[in-house]
Structures are given as structure tokens and as C-alpha cells.
Amino acid sequence: MLAEDFPLSEEQGPYLSLIKSSAGHIHHLIEDILDFSRLEAGKLELRLEAVDFAALANEIIELLTPLLREKKLRLSTHFGNLPLVLADPVRLRQVLLNLLSNAVKFTSLEGNIEIAAKAESSILLVEVRDDGIGIPPEYQGEIFERFKQVRQLNPKGTRIQKGTGLGLPISRFLVELHGGKIDVDSIPGEGATFHFSIPLAP
């Protein structure tokens, strides 16, 4: 309301932006906790429909464009002509947003991110790759567990901002709820590749 209806000075503007950003971050953390509680209690139900994966992915990429520009990251897509998938569009969006947001967070300035998808038999295989800092081998088996956070440092040696440690566990739950699987391959210093499967629409 302040941003839309009240004139702000040059000094006040940045403070208001910080308030808005912090509120959004807190909202995201609360939603993660609530979602995880619903998943653990078995109270989260999917609303399945035929979904255009490429269109959904492009919407998320557009949402992340300001962050990509800020870090001068290059994001490429490799989709081809994909069939529709059978998914809950809201929850599939959540999975992909989690993975792409992590890729942006852990990729250094002027780095590269790729998202690829291909149909194979009755499933769609999706990969999100980056050439960022990677994940140490000792943590790769833990990152899908709740509240597990890897202590990651950026090139300046400061810790990268983290959230609740629930983004990847929620993504795992949601992918498995769709009947798919999710995993990661990573070499420290060379990046990470997250890959998951989702069923095709009949």
C-alpha cells in the first residue's frame, strides 16, 4: 500500500523494498512448514490434470528473470516437442521453482543453468543442471531429508542464505506423490544436476 499510494523519498524507497522482500521470505518459510506438515500427515491431495510442462517451465523462468539478470546467469532450455504430463500444476510448479531457485542461489556470477526434459516410455524425465559450487559427497544422501542444510560458501567465503531446509524434502514428497522419483548428481566445484520423473498424461 505504501509503495502504490504514498510518495516516498529516495531514502525511504530502499527500506520499503527491504521490508517487502523480508515479508516475502517469511511467507515462503511459513508455507514450506505448512506444506511439510500436510505431507507428513497425508492431508495433501493432488489435483491431477494434463499439463504442458514446457509452458509451465517458461512461466517459472520468466518469474526468475530478475534474479538471473542480477547475477548475469545464462539459462538455457532443451525441451523439443513434449507430450503433456499428468500432474497437479500447482505442485509441479512448486517442485520446479524449488530446483531452479536453488540453481540460481548456488551458481556463481555469469554461470550457466540448464533445464532439459524428454519423454521416455510413460514418463517425462526432467533435469536441472548448473555449474555452481556443487554438493559435497557426504551431504548428497541427506539433502532430501527435512531440516538438513549444507553449509555452502560463496566465492567470497560468506555463507549463502538458506531457508528452512524443507524445499528439497517437499520436492521429494511431491514428486513421489505423483509416482515419480528425484535424485541428484554433483561434483563439488563443478555443479549439480537434479533429475526427476513425472508420469505422462494418458
In total, the number of strands is 7
CATH topology: Heat Shock Protein 90
Task: List the strand order in the largest sheet.
Answer: 2-4-5-7-6
The N- and C-terminal alpha carbons lie at a distance of 46 Å
What would CATH call the homologous superfamily? Histidine kinase-like ATPase, C-terminal domain
Question: Secondary-structure blueprint of this entry?
Answer:
Layout lengths: L1 H4 L6 H29 L8 E3 L1 H19 L2 E5 L6 E3 L1 H18 L5 E9 L2 E8 L6 H4 L26 H11 L4 E6 L3 E9 L3
Parallel strand pairs: 2-4
Antiparallel strand pairs: 1-3, 4-5, 5-7, 6-7
Task: Describe this protein's structure.
This protein is an alpha+beta fold and 202 residues long. It is built from 6 helices and 7 strands; from the N terminus they run ααβαββαββααββ. The protein has helices spanning 2-5, 12-40, 53-71, 89-106, 137-140, 167-177, and strands spanning 49-51, 74-78, 85-87, 112-120, 123-130, 182-187, 191-199. Strands 2-4-5-7-6 form a 5-stranded mixed β-sheet. The radius of gyration is 18 Å and the shape is globular. The model has no long low-confidence stretch (mean pLDDT 85).
